[in-house]
């Protein structure tokens, strides 16, 4: 495939490095460009004036369109059974999370439903969601377990993720999040569940190669600091690098624990201060912000502007899940991040491409436009500028999505284009 007359080719970074501070606002761009794809990878690109030959290939005229790397969504809970819109209505009526949980809602609700759902049905619904997010430009995604809360059901979730990875072109990373909540069957005996995670779940996960990472919901009332460290260290013994749900509800040392355990990322960060920013600045742990959850729960947004101005880099991710962020739509997430967290459009795109790829350890293959990288690309509809993408927050500006050199989504032609075809 040869893309020609690209209005702007975005994200032509020369290094596969996590972007920090002022570098986050730098989005290398080539105007009036071409890009050639061969064997599913980016072969070459540059200004149209340098395009010398045209091979036997499909030619796509990208006139007035932007081309950018496909999104890398480094934090989702995409495998789940059933939605929780009734709890959404309860929240609108004024019920608190604690009151909803007391009624059997929250994570326990999702766990009960998943435990009653077959692996085949779980795969079918997750496949639909995966295809849904690909249509809005996602080309790589991390998916967590955590709604099983039994040995059999956590393994069921991870096996579904493994099957999704085998059946789809999209790059998928798998995270074991057995420490998402204390199952209702073991309320009052958290220690028994921690032993179950370490002694019964982790050995099977390692033996079957079911996960890349281990995660813990580190929060007061869920898994405290000492318990989180114990679970993460057990995961490391089985070859799983830590990720961490940190500082969503409370600021009590979770970020510093993640840094100390060399976590790949600490995610959420709605409640952080100067000490957490300083700890992250001196580390290789990636701060990953999930503003979709803050939006849906009407919480304070993570302080992205403060973090970037202090020299940190950030990744952005959807947190796609049935309870607190029931959307995997990254074009909307980009707009939300710019509008509510004052991120520049260039910062938002970098956070969702190269920095997101780093938060999944796929930056050598994805996240930027570079020779030899996988041809995971988004073509916009005709738009006036880069800033239009987050500005037009309700518009579907994604025209075509290419994964591994293959078109996986293309908009229907407009009325004018249909008339031209006639």
From TrEMBL:
Q: Where does N-formimidoyl-L-glutamate bind?
A: 147, 321, 323
State where the protein is found.
Cytoplasm
> Would the keyword Iron turn up in this protein's UniProt record?
yes
Residues annotated for Zn(2+) binding in this entry:
75, 77, 245, 319
Which superkingdom is the protein from?
Bacteria
Q: What's the chief localization of this chain?
A: cytoplasm
Please explain the role this protein plays, according to its UniProt record: Catalyzes the hydrolytic cleavage of the carbon-nitrogen bond in imidazolone-5-propanoate to yield N-formimidoyl-L-glutamate. It is the third step in the universal histidine degradation pathway.
**Protein name per the record:** Imidazolonepropionase
**Species annotation:** Flavilitoribacter nigricans (strain ATCC 23147 / DSM 23189 / NBRC 102662 / NCIMB 1420 / SS-2) (Lewinella nigricans)
Gene symbol of the encoding locus = hutI
